[in-house]
Amino acid sequence: MGRVTVRRPVLRIAANGKRTRPDTLAAEEPLEIRVNGKPLSVTMRTPGHDVELAHGFLLTEGVITDREQLATARYCDSPGPDGRNTYNVLDIALAPGVPMPDASVERNFYTTSSCGVCGKAALDSVKLRTQHSPASDPLSIDAETLIGLPDALRAAQRVFDSTGGLHAAGLFDSRGELLVAREDVGRHNAVDKVMGWALMERRVPLTGCVLMVSGRASFELVQKAAMAGVPMLSAVSAPSSLAADLAEEQGMTLIGFLRGSSMNVYTGQERVASVESA
């Protein structure tokens, strides 16, 4: 398994002078995901929880809808310059009878850590249809509970403490209890790792859950949440206009700027118990 962090010397310049010292960086390495031996995508990610990442990617791309559609996951031999396996190629075998992904899922180029939809074969394929619609989810959660989610997620970011360079995603229940948290250099990878965990734990669809992310709420993250049946997505930063449009279309609650004691509820405000309709 690749390293999660890397140490390297840096020149530190400050008001009291300059000196060379070691610094800790978040590792970023490519992961090639194969399905039944066929290359499907390459994403730049922080090593760790790779099987979850691949499972979550296949779920949120609409290749699979439940755990039983997957058979095995194994690392392939991918030697580095020193001849050792880099563990950067993962092959997922689908269960018998499960169709292979269509061409719209394939990436024409690699997926960067900042963009999970770069290189789509066709723009129309970005807007996927979920089989786990969150529209009828009866989730209701107090604003006071939501206010505590960013701190709870931040407390789970162990690698961020040493690097300051990772995104995070956390899955919470309606009481604000953290179910799982994952970190990655890519915000979409962090979400895929969480979704993959849920799939492997047979929790999909994620009824009654809140997905909390450490950055902004993009169209892509709303899509991934909808594909897993998540009724509420909250973020510490802003959503995009397309993210809000998609959340409304999917019947999801979208919350942005969840900081301190305030938040903006962009869609689905009926699920936030203390927010009254205007």
Automatic annotation (TrEMBL):
Family annotation (InterPro entries): Cytidine_deaminase-like, FdhD
GO-annotated biological processes? Mo-molybdopterin cofactor biosynthetic process
Enumerate the active-site residues.
115
UniProt keyword annotations, A-Z: Cytoplasm, Molybdenum cofactor biosynthesis
Q: Pfam families this protein is in? A: FdhD-NarQ
| Any one GO molecular-function label of the UniProt entry | sulfurtransferase activity
- GO-annotated cellular components: cytoplasm
Which compartments does it reside in?
Cytoplasm
Its function?
Required for formate dehydrogenase (FDH) activity. Acts as a sulfur carrier protein that transfers sulfur from IscS to the molybdenum cofactor prior to its insertion into FDH.
Query: Which family would the database say this protein is a member of?
Result: Belongs to the FdhD family.
**NCBIfam families on file:** fdhD_narQ (TIGR00129), PRK00724.1-2 (NF001943)
- Name used for this protein in its record: Sulfur carrier protein FdhD
Which organism is the protein's source?
Saccharopolyspora dendranthemae
